[in-house]
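ok new one. same drill as before - structure tokens go in, u give me an amino acid for every spot. 173 of them this time. try not to just spam alanines like last time pls lmao
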């Protein structure tokens, strides 16, 4: 069997299970929220209009979410929690999941083949490219963590103290 077809089939099954499971968890979370103390807020007019809009027009958003990175899970969860009807969700899931599986199967296998040729032909160059990629990813992660850790708002002076456990820690030092 063709590698691309086999890979696309396996990825299709994976995406159907993952996205469908996320939808189901969202459905259960929405049902639980409706029975909780937030039920009154969820039944407000604004929320009901948003829910009807998702139920009616959410299917294209679900299908298109599979062409993005990091947006799929949120869309599938929200589709479930906002009770998108299965007759609209399932076709969007099947179409979007097929597109995702084909893209990742073709592009992913192509990238793996390219890396395999690079390592086979020029091991030092391939190793350097891999190390460079690893350093770039680590640098991006460190940059984002430092940026997130910066205080937002007023300045911190050395006199600001925070009590943690049984000791006092000076911030800004």
């Amino acid at each position: 069997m063709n590698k691309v077809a086999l890979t696309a089939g396996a990825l299709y099954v994976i995406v159907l299970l993952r996205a469908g499971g996320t939808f189901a968890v969202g459905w259960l979370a929405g049902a639980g929220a409706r029975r909780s103390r937030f039920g009154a807020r969820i039944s407000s007019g604004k929320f009901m209009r948003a829910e009807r809009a998702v139920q009616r027009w959410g299917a294209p958003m679900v299908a298109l979410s599979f062409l993005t990175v990091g947006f799929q899970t949120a869309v599938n969860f929200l589709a479930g929690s906002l009770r998108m009807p299965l007759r609209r969700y399932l076709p969007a899931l099947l179409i979007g999941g097929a597109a995702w599986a084909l893209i990742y199967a073709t592009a992913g296998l192509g990238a793996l083949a390219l890396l395999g040729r690079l390592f086979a032909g020029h091991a030092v160059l391939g190793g350097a490219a891999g190390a460079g990629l690893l350093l770039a990813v680590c640098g991006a992660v460190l940059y984002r963590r430092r940026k997130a850790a910066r205080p937002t708002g007023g300045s911190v002076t050395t006199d600001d103290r925070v009590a943690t456990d049984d000791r006092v820690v000076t911030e800004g030092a």
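Residues 1 and 7 are 10 Å apart (CA to CA). and btw The chain is about 75% helix and 5% strand.
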